[in-house]
Queue: 2 jobs
Job 1
Amino acid sequence: MRHFILFSRTGWTRGNFIDPKKAGRLDIVIHCLQAALSLSGRIRKDVVFHAILGGPPRPPVHLEFVGSKLKDFRSDEKELTKLLRKVLNVKKISERIEVVDGVFVEKKSLQKVVVELFNKGVGIFVLREDGISMRKIKLEERDKCFVLGDFIGLPKKDENFILRYAKNVVSVGPLPYFASHTIVVVNNELDNLEYGIT
Ligand SMILES: C[S@@+](CC[C@H](N)C(=O)[O-])C[C@H]1O[C@@H](n2cnc3c(N)ncnc32)[C@H](O)[C@@H]1O
């Protein structure tokens, strides 16, 4: 299983927005969601996409989209905006709730989500432009999790915490990509590895 965690420090935690870009850059969450879960004409069933939202009014909110459980998932921006609104409009989020098939919401921090995955044996990797090339590291675990920052990057405090659990800081190239483009590259690298293409 592949996990991606996007930390959006400003993403709104209620669905009362019109333009996701003006809702603490929720547009980045939408682009990452598309990049993580969509193939041409089908869903990646081996991917779980997580977004941790740190914006108002009730942070931190953990959204989880489980590829193997999604039904009627439409990956165009308009539909994803509607889905995000619906998920964020859930009144009580203290407990984990499945809002629609395969889409979960709960109140949980980035650090807690990372530790829970680590405790399940998932290999944690931080994505950063100045990390070790992804092509140079061993990705032998079956389950892997890649943690990304948003337009600002990961907060230092959280990054330092995650690095206590992470195997490596990895890079997909020497240039700064959009978070969503980084996810596309990681998915492509893992596809090639799994299909024995080097
Ligand atoms: C738009 S970038 C953030 C740029 C931000 N100014 C910073 O200093 O982190 C969003 C995220 O994409 C990931 N990213 C961007 N380029 C990357 C690269 N070449 N290799 C690995 N991760 C990358 C990182 O996780 C980064 O936090």
Note: The chain has a mean pLDDT of 96.
Job 2
Amino acid sequence: MRWMNFLGLSLAAQKTEAVLISSRKIVETATILIDGNAVQSRRTIRYLGVWIDTRLCFREHLASQLCPVCSGEIVEYAQHILFKCRRFDDGRRVLETKMEICAENLVELMMARKSMWEAVSSFAASAIPELRLAERGRSRPGVA
Ligand SMILES: [Zn+2]
């Protein structure tokens, strides 16, 4: 921690998480002392939305990205949400009354007319709160 003090930086023990990255077979832990408070390393931590694990294999992160509604190993990326996910069927139906969309024509349609832009924007605005809520509700994987 001396280098942090030298740079005028400090850590708050209650806000600090640690992960010990190693390729050793046995998962090891480390304890960091911050102003006399012990911070124990964990098997995974989440930083800027990414689950970082001791092996840097990102298994927990990939699992956290799977759609919680659709069966199988479906990653919840934009194309799935816009065109496939059952959670957003109602919004998609509304959108499809205005245009027949697919991944290949979506941007072109949005750029062609303001009403198309607004329809897609409205769909996204209705989906985002549900996606954020689901994100917050996901349990923390692999906390030791
Ligand atoms: Zn889905």
Note: Residues 25 and 66 are 27 Å apart (CA to CA).
